[in-house]
Amino acid sequence: MCADQPPLRTEGLSKLTGAERFVDDLAIEGCLWGMTARSPLPRGKIREIRYGNGVDWSEFVVVDHNDIPGPNQIRLLELDQPVLASDQIRHIHEAVVLVAHPSREMCRRAVDQIEIIIDPEPGIFDFRVTPREDQIQHGTDNVLSDLGICKGDVEAALASADHVIEGVYETGAQEHVYIENQGMAAWVDGDVIVVQGSMQCPYYVLNSLTHALDRDESKIRVVQAPTGGGFGGKEDYPSNLAIHAALLAMKAKQPVKIIYDRSEDMAATTKRHPARVRHRTGVTSDGRLVAQDIEMVIDAGAYITLSPVVLSRGIIHAGGPYACDNVRISGRAMLTNSVPYGAFRGFGAPQSLFALERHLDVIARQLGIDPVEIRRRNLVRDGQSTATGQVINDGTDRIELLELAVAQSGYTQKQAAHTEFNASSQFMRRGIGLATFFHGGGFTGSGEDYLKSKLHVLGKPDGSIEILAASTEMGQGAQTIFISLASNRLGLEHSDVVVATPDTFRVPNSGPTVASRTAMVVGRLIERACDDLRKQCGLKDDARGESVRHAIRQWHVTHPGETLLGRAQYERPPHVQWDEKTYKGDAYGTFAWGTYVAEVEIDLRTYQCRVLDFHAVQEVGTVLNETLATGQIQGGVVQGIGWALLEECVMEQGAFKNCQLTNYIIPTAQDVPTIHVTFLENPYEHGGGGSKGIGELPMDGPAPAILNAIADALGIEPNRIPLTPERLMEHVLDDHAC
Amino acid sequence: MTMPADQTQIEVPFTLNGSEIVVRVEPSERLLDTLRYHLAMTGTKEGCGEGECGACTVNMNGLPVNSCLVPTYQARGAEIETIESVQHGSVHPLHSTGATQCGACTPGVVMSAMWLLKNRDKLDTHTVRELMAGNLCRCTGYDGIVNGVESALGLGSDE
Ligand code: FES
Ligand code: FES
């Protein structure tokens, strides 16, 4: 390698030597353990709560809904979810009572002694069917969110198309399996309640605490502890946990820590929304898309959480990176009595892109066109528009990207080799498949306008700087990227820059750490705050290095005891125009683009499918740190492989039956091949350092690429993931039967 | 019927990172909890508590074990080595290949990697990917880990 080695992860050594202190590692003087008693049934009315005599209750602190100072509501998009159920139960494992005790084992015994007696009501567990009268729990139809996109005249275009091809595709729930379980500590410090734990979004947690505790934000302090993976799973749920820990700590007048164990975490916290997507597509005989009629339905679970925004991103991505003049997309999020579903890397887009990319291969095969060729013909060119009418004009050559992936993966040669291999092998079948896709960076539509994120750069008396932001490090490398962006902007050494711990008493609200927005949106704020800092020191725009350090020191000499802050607040790039009512316009400031190719081998005796080779080619703007960016892609791809082939959430009456790592299987090192990663770089002028979002993109492509490869290998059209060996066997046997 | 705690506790002497120590624990206590909550050595992590994830990997008499599955009394007389014994210099190859992201799996990964470095003969019959399959990582997709182990072993990348 001749290129400069990228800077190493800032906190890497601390993690590699076990020195990093996660919330479960924090020694807090006098800390009690907290634990949760949960509903044993999915729906009904609480009749009675019995406290058994197997423990001495005088030793415990017990909290129920009566102990909540403010409204019994978790403030997020809506207020429908209670902090602790008081009367109505909407899902199994719903939190009802909290206990605290110095011994964790005693907490377990106490929870066992709490019997929650419920008069059952009929639940609904299948989001695909129309609810019966007695299953309605929201409005008149359990529809929590209903969205639509319309472009051109779909009916007319379908009527005149050479072919109309239909398909239905389904994706299952997926568990995040961040290796650090959810955990939160809380204590009272004078008249301030302090909450510290594993989280992606400190200000979401603060916003939920001020509401439920009915306290001013100057009396609540939220501090992020190092966070052992999030993937969306620590976007909204930590708010629930923070309120729980705070309620116990307030009543106990002692610090309390709640650390979920793996099976509680898997059973009670959010997962990826299951989805069903129908396609009805009008095409010309040579494979051009003339009409896309798409309907997406997602299972929201028992409360609204983030479902409307997941659905929004899902439908905006449902038409894919293709130019089609007539598009109609409808989306619905359905209430069920399952544990609420929530954010998970990709946020609705992996579900809709799986359906689309699978469907495109079905179309290609029916028309006798190669899957690469059908994509070549339809990929959006600059000057053409997406489903929302967003005109793409970023100068990225999406055809080049496709061709590069085809060349690097040896797609054509492998097709020929597989034909020969499959003819000569009795039990093994090989195939190759691809997916082309895109992912919008940052919040959808006007989301960033509403957030109006703020960021500060603090100039210190010694001439060094500190970045003050609420954006969290959870493994994605935010700290390292922030330091690089600031040091590049001001010509400083990396050692001149530190990133503050996200602490709502110290850092402004730079928005949640979600939606692949951190490097792109918040990174850009760092650059602008650095520029502002320079201005405040009376420096010219091109001042760098020692002149910056010197000016910061001088500023402090002339302003003793004052604080030097460079400030920035989000401003919408002028080119972005979005109409929230009609769902027309620029859904995102920019898109990252990808083509992924998977090669698979299936053993017809065991129906095991192995991914033999995987190539991920993408354009993500400027790559800020090659090691970190590559790691993001590889990690996302492997989560995608798991979702496609292994990770099945077995749901029964809204409960996750296999909520253990023994029977919920995620990929090991042995289950996956090397993930070959290639970047094309086309700087995005409004992104930090020219970057676009990267975190979620790699979740979109693997599942369809792998299923397309299986379709190629076996000549079947699987339409549902996870495609476990059992499912694949049924599919193959059914196919042979008819 | 519960007996007073001090009557049920047992004394367990063992060697921890080269120092001889004695702990007094409940008979059912897990080695993982003894390390983390009694000895405040929190480098060893809990990911699943049931022997699946490897985040709690420590070395016991030279073999990597899941400390969540080891009752502390079984460590009587044993040599236990934890992540706290690992020299900072020795993790550099893993650092430069991006073997850690969130860090929750990392101490376990490092313990397995260190064992592999001392037991290279295992590579005669197994691949690095097989030997590292006991440590789940949800962040890296494993290439960063595999490349780091191979570079520490002085092998090329796994191309
Ligand atoms: S915590 Fe021991 S193997 Fe997961
Ligand atoms: S680095 Fe996060 S689980 Fe491995």
C-alpha-based Rg of chain A, rounded = 26 Å
Bound molecules: FE2/S2 (inorganic) cluster
Share of residues in helices of chain B = 25-40%
CATH class of the largest domain in chain A: Alpha Beta
CATH topology of the largest domain in chain A: Aldehyde Oxidoreductase, domain 4
> Helical amount among residues of chain A, as a percent range?
25-40%
The secondary-structure class of chain A comes to alpha+beta
In what order do the strands lie side by side in the largest sheet of chain B? Answer: 2-1-5-3-4
Strand content of chain B: 15-25%
Strand proportion of chain A, as a percent range, falls in: 15-25%
- Sheet having the most strands of chain B: 5 strands, mixed
- CATH-assigned homologous superfamily of the largest domain in chain A: Aldehyde oxidase/xanthine dehydrogenase, molybdopterin binding domain
Order of helices and strands of chain B: HEEHEEEHHHH
What does the largest sheet of chain A look like?
7 strands, mixed
Tell me the greatest interface. A-B, 59 and 56 residues
Query: What's the CATH topology label of the largest domain in chain B?
Result: Ubiquitin-like (UB roll)
Structural class of chain B: alpha+beta
Tell me, rounded to a whole number, the average pLDDT of chain B.
Answer: 94
Note the gap between the termini of chain A. 55 Å
What does this protein structure show overall?
The complex is a heterodimer of chains A (738) and B (159). By secondary structure, chain A is of the alpha+beta class. Chain A contains 19 helices and 28 strands. Chain A has 3 domains: 28-121 and 188-261, Aldehyde oxidase/xanthine dehydrogenase, a/b hammerhead (Aldehyde Oxidoreductase, domain 3), CATH 3.90.1170; 275-443 and 582-737, Aldehyde oxidase/xanthine dehydrogenase, molybdopterin binding domain (Aldehyde Oxidoreductase, domain 4), CATH 3.30.365; 453-569, Aldehyde oxidase/xanthine dehydrogenase, molybdopterin binding domain (Aldehyde Oxidoreductase, domain 4, 2-Layer Sandwich). Chain A is 30% helix and 24% strand. In chain A, the strands form 7 sheets. Chain A has a 7-stranded mixed β-sheet, with helices on both faces. In chain A, strands 7-15-14-13-8-28 form a 6-stranded mixed β-sheet, with helices on both faces. Chain A has a 4-stranded mixed β-sheet with strand order 16-23-24-27, with helices on both faces. The N and C termini of chain A lie far apart (55 Å). The mean pLDDT of chain A is 97. Chain B is an alpha+beta fold. Helices cover 28% and strands 16% of the residues of chain B. Chain B contains 6 helices and 5 strands. The longest helix of chain B is centred in the last third of the chain and has 13 residues, at 106-118. Chain B starts with a helix and ends in a 7-residue tail after the last helix. At the A-B interface, helix 1 and helix 16 of A face helix 3, helix 4, helix 5 and helix 6 of B.
